Amino acid sequence: MSMNFDRPVNEAALAKIKEIFGQPTASDGKTLLFDEMGEIDSRDMKKIANLAKQPAVIEVHGDGDIKELGDGTRYKVTPRGWRKLTG
Q1: Among residues 22, 34, 21, which one has the least CA distance to residue 67?
Q2: Could you tell me the pTM of the whole model?
């Protein structure tokens, strides 16, 4: 799964995200990739969006999906989670 924002996430929102979902596998400040997020509670998402002062969008990805971060780094979903693509 990924959590996406329009603008970079502030430190308060990032701390809440890590508290609730753990350390992201990869992040560029606006997009956070998670191998596992567990249960998503709308109250937690509201807290995150309020702290970030912007909407937080969750995307569910399937095996083989590719997500590109702002720096051009690409990640692919595998059965073991996100894997960085080279080249």
Answers
A1: 34
A2: 0.91
Write the pLDDT tens digit of every residue in 7-31: 999 999 999 999 999 999 999 999 9
DSSP 8-state class, residue 14: H
Is-contact 36 77, C-beta < 8 A?
A: no
Residue 22 forms part of a structural domain: yes
In a domain, 76, yes or no: no
Tokens matching residue 26: 């990869």
Buried-exposed string 53-68: b where 16+ CB fall within 10 A, e elsewhere: ebebeeeebeeeeebe
In-domain check, residue 14: yes
Residues 75-80: what's their mean pLDDT? 95
The answer for residues whose C-beta is within 8 angstroms of residue 23's C-beta and 6 or more apart is none
